[in-house]
Specification:
Blueprint lengths: L2 H10 L3 E5 L11 E4 L4 E5 H6 L2 H23 L8 H17 L11 H5 L4
Parallel strand pairs: 1-3
Antiparallel strand pairs: 2-3
Helix pairs in contact: 1-3, 3-4
The protein binds zinc ion (ZN).
Zinc ion (ZN) binds next to helix 3 and helix 4.
């Protein structure tokens, strides 16, 4: 999944994407979160700030892809895996599969601007 596709997909599902301070980087859970009440995907601003632009693009794409999987789970589009670890692996696999289908475009080198764009 490239960054543009990640945001387009979120928009198709009417999922907002925001950046927020989710705490210190290091734990898997803290890179991003999905909140079905928005629905909204929050990407950890601290992590984005710690990365170079091209790394940030990949990070955001993976985070959004991962959380979109949780959204599909919530909608019932994919079966909810009972085991939490297995579920998280499935979400990562979903994001990675989408990521591998695309390559990064040159216009994605400044991903931070995507998060502040109106409409996302
Ligand atoms: Zn997850």
């Amino acid at each position: 999944m490239n960054l543009r596709r990640a945001f387009e997909m979120a928009r198709e599902f009417s999922v907002r994407i925001e950046h927020a301070d989710l705490g210190t980087w290091g734990a898997h859970e803290l890179r991003s979160e999905y909140d079905p009440s928005g629905p909204v995907i929050r990407v950890n601003q601290r992590v984005i700030e710690s990365l170079r632009a091209n790394e940030a693009a990949q990070f955001i794409s993976m985070a959004v892809g991962h959380e979109l999987y949780h959204h599909l789970e919530h909608r019932g589009d994919v079966d909810r895996v009972a085991d939490r670890k297995a579920r998280e692996r499935a979400a990562d696999a979903f994001a990675l599969e989408l990521l591998n289908q695309c390559h990064f475009e040159r216009n994605e080198v400044e991903p931070r601007s995507w998060l502040t764009e109106k409409g996302f």
